[in-house]
């Protein structure tokens, strides 16, 4: 999902005290939450730092494709909604960075990892938002897919991550609904507006399905994350839930989904769907998607342009503190 | 990175009058005033609070989780501190 790069082969299986390891697993199996100062295996800590920080980076980079439309929103109402949503994404990034920091990594290190390209973010934000309907389709499909992934994360074994996800999920529902509402409004408009909706959905449907990460048969990271209850469902299970929930919504909207293999299996009650283009997925993760370079350029510029503000704030704080101690 | 790290603050929010402040999360800020502003923007976008406290994270003293046995175990054996320890005569219906 927002942490697809975790689906690459696991890194380390360091040497851990067997007894501590067993006691830790027993706590997890009893559904006890693990808190920052509790003992935890190094690999658990490392997996969480990577997962939570990638998730945070995705929220922050996710502000860019939507920010593209703020000045061109068609009404004051839509502009206010879009601004509120983008502000939420920034907030989600901050909740998540804080959760990652409880594991002993600094905010500065995490931001540095993003800006140097060492850390990944979700492939979805490397696609452009070409027309106004994309803003709606992002809310409906991208935030919809995110919700599918994030609801089980509310029960993640690591306390700070679970608490951050609970806050995020409460806010995420607004994101999906405003997107769907935007599309419903456009579908009531002119033929041209309806075509814009179909065009946006055609472009974003497959990238949204890719958000769940590679197919289970190619995902090497799930076993440990499942055992530690960081993850509760496999990539394919979550993807299926998303498809099942979304197909009826597309029907109500009056658009088609760009998958000729999509059909209801009467026996299972699930919608069978085609395979996303995994070459495109890996290519995007590797940094060669449509907007990867632009996104990184924009993030680096924002960070560098803000440097004087951070420096000035600290200089002011130091000056005030000195005055206070002198008085 | 030549930049200095921006200090970390813990944020506590009172949701309604009549309730105590509860830990909501943390923010980074250069000073207390900016920490309050950031806490407002990050943690009260939907009317979640009427009052905010920010405390430098470094000022919080916490017990060592590895010693939580010595710290909290003694209360487990003092079951007479709970009302259910006492059996009432049947004639007394409620107390």
Automatic annotation (TrEMBL), chain B:
Pfam family, one: PaaB
Classification via InterPro entries: PaaB (IPR009359), PaaB_sf (IPR038693)
UniProt superkingdom: Bacteria
Protein name per its UniProtKB record: 1,2-phenylacetyl-CoA epoxidase, subunit B
Name of the coding gene: paaB
């Amino acid at each position: 999902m927002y942490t697809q790069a975790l689906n690459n082969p696991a890194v380390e299986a360091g040497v851990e005290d067997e007894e501590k390891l067993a006691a830790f697993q027993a706590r997890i199996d009893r559904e006890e939450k693990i808190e920052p100062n509790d003992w935890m295996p190094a690999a658990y800590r490392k997996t969480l730092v990577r997962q939570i920080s990638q998730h945070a980076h995705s929220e922050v980079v996710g502000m860019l494709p939507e920010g593209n439309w703020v000045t061109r929103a068609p009404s004051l109402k839509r502009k206010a909604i879009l601004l509120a949503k983008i502000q939420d994404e920034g907030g989600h990034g901050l909740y998540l960075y804080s959760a990652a920091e409880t594991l002993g990594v600094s905010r500065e290190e995490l931001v540095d990892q993003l800006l140097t390209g060492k850390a990944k973010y979700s492939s979805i934000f490397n696609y452009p938002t070409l027309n106004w309907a994309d803003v709606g389709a992002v809310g409906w499909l991208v935030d919809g897919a995110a919700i599918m992934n994030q609801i089980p994360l509310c029960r993640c074994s690591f306390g700070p991550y679970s608490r951050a996800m609970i806050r995020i999920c409460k806010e995420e529902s607004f994101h999906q609904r405003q997107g769907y509402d935007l599309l419903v409004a456009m579908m009531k408009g002119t033929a041209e507006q309806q075509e814009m909706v179909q065009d946006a959905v055609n472009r974003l449907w497959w990238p949204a399905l890719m958000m769940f990460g590679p197919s289970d048969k190619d995902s090497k990271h799930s076993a440990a994350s499942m055992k530690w209850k960081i993850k509760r469902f496999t990539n394919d299970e979550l993807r299926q839930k998303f498809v099942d929930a979304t197909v009826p919504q597309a029907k109500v909207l009056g658009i088609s989904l760009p998958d000729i293999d999509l059909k209801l299996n009467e026996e299972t009650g699930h919608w069978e769907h085609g395979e996303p283009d995994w070459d495109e997925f890996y290519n995007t993760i590797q940094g060669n998607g449509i907007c990867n370079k632009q996104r990184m350029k924009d993030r680096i510029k924002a960070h560098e342009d803000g440097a004087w503000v951070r420096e000035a704030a600290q200089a002011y704080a130091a000056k005030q503190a000195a005055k206070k101690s002198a008085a | 990175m030549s930049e200095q790290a921006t200090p970390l603050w813990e944020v506590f929010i009172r949701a309604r009058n009549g309730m105590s402040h509860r830990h909501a999360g943390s923010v980074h800020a250069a000073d207390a005033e900016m920490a309050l502003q950031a806490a407002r923007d990050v943690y009260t976008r939907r009317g979640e609070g009427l009052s905010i406290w920010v405390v430098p994270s470094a000022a919080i003293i916490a017990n060592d989780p590895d010693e939580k046995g010595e710290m909290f175990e003694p209360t487990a054996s003092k079951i007479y501190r709970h009302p259910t320890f006492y059996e009432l005569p049947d004639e007394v219906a409620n107390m």
